[in-house]
Amino acid sequence: MGLITGVAGFGLGLVYTATKDRIAAAAADETVKGLALVLPGYELDAETTQRVDDVEYWVGRNREGSLGYAFIAIGSGYSGEIRTLVGMNAQGEILGITVLSQQETPGLGARVQEVASKVYLWQWLTGQAPKEMEPGRPWFAQQFRGLKAEEIEIHKGVEWQAMSDQERQALREQNAVSALSGATITTRAITRSIEAAAAKVLSAAGKGGPPPETPEAALSKP
Questions:
Q1: How many CA atoms lie within 13 A of 91 on its CB side?
Q2: pLDDT at res. 159
Q3: What is the pLDDT averaged over residues 166-170?
Q4: Using CB atoms within 10 A of its CB, is residue 58 exposed (0-12), middle (13-18) or buried (19+)?
Q5: Which string of DSSP letters, residue by residue, matches 130-164?
Q6: With left for phi above 0 and alpha for psi between -120 and 50, is residue 53 left, alpha or beta?
Q7: How far is CA 43 from CA 35, 38, 40, 46, in A?
Q8: DSSP 165-177
Q9: Whole-angstrom distance, CA of residue 175 vs CA of residue 94
């Protein structure tokens, strides 16, 4: 038994050694792509990062010379750590977010990366569905754009993807997002981790952001 365990451990070690560089490269590539999504119109060096406490962030500049920031927010979801890449301007307005990794329950919290279909059922049944479509973006992330990265409210009920334009606008005016059905813990983990990380970045940048807040304190909010 000891021999089998030893051989198995040795084999796992070899696999890890052979794949760790590729895994790291894939993660880095995902981050580079994400930076373009969350900070549109800003130029930055993806390899030049800064850090404040436990938050890694990037500084970018747009054509008008205004600064923008991208940072990684880490929260504890229902099943594990959720890493979110967030872009915001110097005033703390969110320009975009993308979930880099999560281990949430399929059909519930994992829906943070769900892309709403733009094809109706009748189009599939009649063979009229378009063969080529531009890749969509997760609807959960879209609702954060334009919000202030502080005191974000979480509304339960109708999800953002099912709302009318008027309902979505009302949500934005309240600086709020809609919770994933059956996955409020996941929604809260992402939202509060964004608030906590944004506060630290704005404070470090000296842009008059709210005072730094620990992730533990942020996640304790309702």
A1: 6
A2: 95
A3: 96
A4: buried
A5: -S-------HHHHTTTT-BSSS-EEE-SS-GGGS-
A6: left
A7: 10, 12, 9, 9
A8: HHHHHHHHHTTEE
A9: 11
Determine which helix (DSSP H) or strand (DSSP E) holds 126, and give its type and residue range. none
Whole-angstrom distance, CA of residue 13 vs CA of residue 27: 20
| Residue linked to tokens 């880099």 | 100
What is the token pair recorded at 168?
């979505």
Per-residue pLDDT of 43-98, as tens digits, reads: 999 999 999 999 999 999 999 999 999 999 999 999 999 999 999 999 999 999 99
Highest mean pLDDT among 22-31, 181-190, 201-210: 181-190
Domain range annotation of the chain: 37-219
φ, ψ of residue 15 in degrees (nearest 5)? -60, -45
pTM of the prediction? 0.75
**DSSP notation for 19-74:** HHHHHHHHHHHHHHHHHHHHSTT-B--TT--EEETTEEEEEEE-TT--EEEEEEEE
Q: Compute the chain's Rg from CA coordinates.
A: 20
- Comparing C-alpha atoms, which of 193, 191, 184 is closest to residue 216? 193
Q: Please name the amino acid found at residue 104.
A: E
Do 83 and 102 meet the contact criterion of CB atoms below 8 Å apart? Answer: yes
Q: Parallel, antiparallel, or unpaired for β 153-155 and 176-178?
A: parallel
C-alpha 67, offset from chain centre: 20
Q: How far apart are CA 50 and CA 55, in angstroms?
A: 8
Task: Quote the tokens at residue 77.
Answer: 């979801």
Residues 17-43: what's their mean pLDDT? 70
